[in-house]
Design goal:
The chain is α+β, with helices and mostly antiparallel strands and 396 residues long. It contains nine helices and 13 strands. Strands 1-3-2-6-5-4 form a six-stranded antiparallel β-sheet. Helix 5 (131-175) runs parallel beside helix 8 (262-278). 30% of the residues are buried.
């Protein structure tokens, strides 16, 4: 255990000492940083095992360690530090360290804050290596994105084929002046009923899958929205290209970080794209555009479809909305999809809006707040800035 002499006055009881030694035995990195002195005063043995450093040289090694922070995380973590040093940050956060020739090393940071009677500020923390969990989650999110894409393709194209069979059977029944003897009437009835039941079962499967996702706990993490949606959008583009449906997307060149439940949000995008395709004639475009807004990330799902009548626009996000209509290929609508999408977006502190002109198309826009730390509070004149591994907080 590395314990600087300056920390010893704070070990007031055997009870405190017990917890210090318990921290030493932890497999996760435990540390205490003296903000007043601008130094680490405690780090446990896990520091050597996880970061391959030397505990007694942790302060000398700290600049090199900070230099390994992922470039996209540095500004965010600096703002996080400003709040933490004032006792205003109690939430866990995730950070990445780069490793030459290897994948990034992910950590979850749990912060603690303590101010002593003499004004000394101590920041404690636990760093847990979550790299394996991140790899697992990435694989799971990729699988879910592909699953959602396949389900949406099945929903529209397979159900569309069944609707066509049903319509042909009805047309034959109407066109024949008198049905011939034998089993022809029975066979036409079987075609109609089977097709209708198949369409209903397909839609129920999709709706149950969506509802099951909505009813699970929200698990948000800080992610690059463009990178997260790339797998899903590329899969959609590939599948719809094979089916002859024009579908394109555009992503920003720079990262857009948001706090996201990846599985739930990709289902929102899949649902919006599927809804656009449902009301877009063959040969017309559906486009997804991801871009930055003022303090937000925006996802636009735009189509060249039939549009939404002006009198129905105020009702499109209502549950069992009167605005629900069957798709152009006969796809049924429960009136739940857009309402659930709006609910999920609002769980992310975002908004979902629509603009539409009948006969010209619709654009659904999701706006999510960027994953930035809360602005640092105003510092009264004459008060000292908080020292830290990033230096004095000039903007504090």
């Amino acid at each position: 255990m590395y314990l600087r002499p300056s920390l010893k006055p704070y070990l007031m009881t055997d009870f405190t000492a017990f917890f210090m030694y318990q921290a030493e035995a932890s497999a996760h990195i435990q540390f205490i940083y003296n903000v007043t002195q601008g130094r680490l005063v405690f780090v446990n043995a896990a520091y050597a095992a996880v970061l391959h450093g030397t505990a007694s040289r942790a302060n000398e090694e700290l600049p090199a360690l900070l230099a390994r922070l992922h470039p996209d995380d540095r500004a965010f973590l600096a703002r996080y530090w400003q709040l933490w040093a004032r006792g205003r940050m109690l939430d866990d956060t995730e950070v990445r360290l780069t490793r030459p020739g290897q994948s990034d090393q992910w950590f979850c940071l749990t912060p603690h804050y303590q101010q002593a009677a003499d004004g000394t500020v101590l920041l404690g923390g636990e760093l847990r290596d979550i790299s394996a969990a991140k790899d697992y989650q990435h694989n799971a999110d990729t699988f879910n994105a592909r699953k959602n894409t396949v389900l949406e393709i099945v929903s529209h194209d397979l159900s569309g084929a069944f609707v066509m069979v049903q319509q042909i059977a009805q047309h034959l029944r109407d066109e024949l002046p008198a049905l011939p003897p034998g089993r022809v009437p029975e066979m036409l009835a079987v075609l109609e009923n089977t097709s209708r039941d198949s369409v209903r079962m397909i839609r129920e499967l999709i709706n149950l899958e969506f509802l099951a996702s909505v009813n699970t706990d929200l698990k948000r993490s800080r992610v690059d929205l463009a990178a997260t949606l790339h797998v899903l959008l590329e899969q959609l583009r590939h599948e719809h290209q094979l089916l002859g449906h024009p579908f394109t997307y555009a992503l920003p060149a720079t990262p857009l970080y948001v706090h996201l439940d990846t599985n739930k949000f990709t289902q929102v995008v899949t649902n919006l794209v599927g809804n656009a395709l449902k009301f877009t004639p063959a040969g017309k475009q559906v486009v997804v555009h991801v871009a930055a807004g003022p303090g937000t990330a925006r996802v636009h799902v735009q189509d060249e479809g039939i549009g939404i009548p002006a009198d129905l626009l105020p009702h499109v996000f209502e549950r069992f909305t009167p605005a629900r209509r069957p798709g152009l290929r006969g796809e049924p609508s429960t009136g739940l999809g857009l309402a659930l999408c709006k609910t999920i977006v609002e769980w992310h502190q975002g908004t979902l809006a629509v603009a539409s002109t009948e006969g010209q198309g619709s654009t659904f826009t999701v706006e999510l707040p960027l994953a930035e730390a809360e602005p640092a509070p105003h510092r009264p004149a004459g008060s000292p800035p908080a020292a830290g591994p990033y230096g004095p907080s000039a903007s504090a």
